[in-house]
Each structure stands twice: as C-alpha cells, then as structure tokens.
Design a protein that fits this description.
The protein is of the alpha/beta class and 296 residues long. It is built from 13 helices and seven strands. Strand 2, helix 3 and strand 3 form a beta-alpha-beta unit. The model has no long low-confidence stretch (mean pLDDT 94). The chain binds S-adenosylmethionine. The site of S-adenosylmethionine (SAM) has 20 residues, from helix 2.
Length: 296
C-alpha cells in the first residue's frame, strides 16, 4: 500500500453515471489519491483525457504518481473546486464530458496525525486541506466568541449540545489547555460526557470545525453553480457527499437548475458489501445530473 492509499467509494456507480468513453474529456476536482481518476482514464482508453485538481499539494503528488502511466492524458493542477471554470479556461478547454467531485477528506488526511483531522491520532488542531493558506481550526476557536462558535458547531455539525461544547472549547483555549486534537476531544467530552456508543461525541464538533476551516459548503455551492457551464450538452456531473448538509445542497442544485436534469431521483448509496469492506462508504451519497438544453 502506498502512503496515500485511499479506496475510492462507489467506484462502479460513479463510472456508470459518468460513462467515460474514448475521446472524452473528464474532470476530477477532488483527485485525492487518484483512485477514481485512474478508473476514468482506464475506461476512456485509449485517448480520453482527465483534468484533475485538488487543493492539497500532497494529494496532487500522490495522484501524480498513481496516474504517471497515463502520460499526457492526465493534466493535474492545484486548485479548489470553486475554481473549476478558471482552471478549464487556463487550459483552453471549452467543455467537459463529465465531472466528478468526491467531497470531504481522504483517509490519508485522517491517517496523518500532523494534519489534525482525527481525534484517533493526536496532532495539532489544524484541519486545513491546503496547508499553505487560511486559518487553522485552533485559530478559528481562538478568535471566535462562544456564541459564534456554538452557531458554527450547531450548523455544520448538526450538534444540539453546541452551546455547552463551545463554552468548554473556549475555556480550554483560554486556560492554554487546547493544543492537540486529543485536547479538543477531551474538551468536548468534558462538556457532554465521554464515549458510550459506537460514535465518539466529539465527531460532530470535529466535522463542524473542518467544514468551517475549509469553507466546504461555500466551495460546494460554487462548484454546483459552475458545473453546468463546464459541461457540454449531455455531459454529466457526479457528486459524492458525506453528510446531509452537502447532500441537500446537491439535491436542490440539481433539481433547481434549468440546465441540469437529475439522473438519480434518490442518492445512490454503497452496497452491503462495500459498506462492510470500507467503513468510509457508509455515509457516502452519490447524485448525478445531465447537462441539458434550456427550454425556450
Ligand atoms: C475523498 S478525497 C478524494 C479521493 C479520490 N476520489 C480518490 O479516489 O482517491 C477528497 C479530496 O478532495 C480534496 N478537496 C476537498 N475539498 C476540496 C476543495 N474545495 N477544493 C479542492 N480539493 C478539495 C481533498 O483535499 C481530498 O484530497
């Protein structure tokens, strides 16, 4: 296994929606380890192209290695998903035949303690996907008052005990006791109690901070607005999301856009088998839509 191994979720289902074919040009705006991208390039042999982007340089490096065998068929750039149209313009590519976004963090982010995404591994409270810019989760906690912090945890974590948690985080921060992801988890437990069931009570707070630090919903909104402009008529956009806030945004964008026609009435979810093999797939939801002519 390489250091950036990541099992692509809903792989067959994504390929079925995008239906990559020879001669096509595809976009993967969340390259990660390049798992989906590799399959898209294989399916579109011998001459399909892939434009792959990620905001995380270490993901780009890993994907570059995984896709090196495809030579010039793969073009990789560091970019956010909100920059899709700008990336295509810079490459003088007019339209794509399909575009995929597989949102959130990769297992590599979670596995590397120093990235600060995981409470299972003690690391700095960072959580930035792009470590070259923006504030860390610790910076965010440090500059937010308890009310702002509570609102953020409530909205992005769908956490009902957000006020108690926010007060506890701020207290730990002010007392100099918030240095690592382990401290962060401990501060949540101090507010709402420790782990009793399958899911750690700190999960929602970690999710909320990560979404805020990376402006994940703003990024997704921008991608959803740009997708119709990036696709040729008949082209397909496919989005895999991992929590209900994102899935709702995707569903509404596909339903409300005049230029898109949803291909999935209900989100496609992982099979029993995939769920057993890859726990990350359990919360994955795939929706796809086709670019259509706007009715006169
Ligand atoms: C779930 S992983 C993708 C895994 C990939 N599909 C594979 O098969 O290996 C998500 C990736 O998207 C990237 N990402 C998340 N949000 C992003 C954004 N707004 N702009 C660019 N990249 C983003 C993350 O850095 C991460 O590498």
């Amino acid at each position: 296994m390489s250091a950036f191994e990541h099992t692509p979720v809903l792989l067959e289902e994504v390929l079925e929606q995008l239906d990559p074919t020879a001669g096509g040009v595809y976009g993967d705006v969340t390259l990660g380890g390049g798992g989906h991208a590799k399959a898209i390039l294989e399916r579109s042999s011998p001459d399909g192209r892939l434009i792959g982007t990620d905001r995380d340089s270490s993901a780009l490096e890993a994907a570059g290695a995984a896709l090196s065998g495809f030579g010039e068929r793969a073009t990789l750039r560091k970019a956010r998903i909100s920059e899709l149209v700008a990336v295509l313009a810079s490459l003088q590519i007019d339209k794509l035949d399909g575009v995929l976004a597989d949102l959130g963090v990769s297992s590599v982010h979670l596995d590397r303690a120093e990235r600060g995404f995981s409470f299972a591994k003690d690391g700095p409270i960072d959580m930035r996907m792009d470590r070259t810019e923006g504030e860390t989760a610790l910076d965010l906690i440090g500059r937010s008052d308890p009310e702002e912090l509570a609102n953020l945890i409530y909205r992005y974590g769908e956490e009902h005990r957000s006020r108690k948690i926010a007060r506890s985080l701020r207290r730990a921060y002010e007392e100099g006791e918030l240095r690592t992801t382990g401290d962060l988890r401990h501060a949540v437990h101090r507010a709402v109690g420790g782990r009793r069931g399958r899911v750690d009570p700190a999960t929602k707070t970690f999710q909320a901070l990560r979404i805020a630090v990376n402006d994940e919903l703003g990024e997704l909104q921008a991608l959803l607005e740009q997708a119709p402009h990036a696709l040729r008529l008949g082209g397909v956009v496919a989005v895999i999301s991992f929590h209900s806030l994102e899935d709702r945004m995707v569903k509404h964008a596909f339903r409300d856009s005049e230029q898109l026609s949803p291909l999935t009435k209900r989100p496609i979810v992982a099979s029993e088998r995939e769920r057993a093999d890859n726990p990350r797939s359990r919360s994955a939801k795939l929706r796809a839509a086709r670019r259509v002519e706007v009715a006169a």
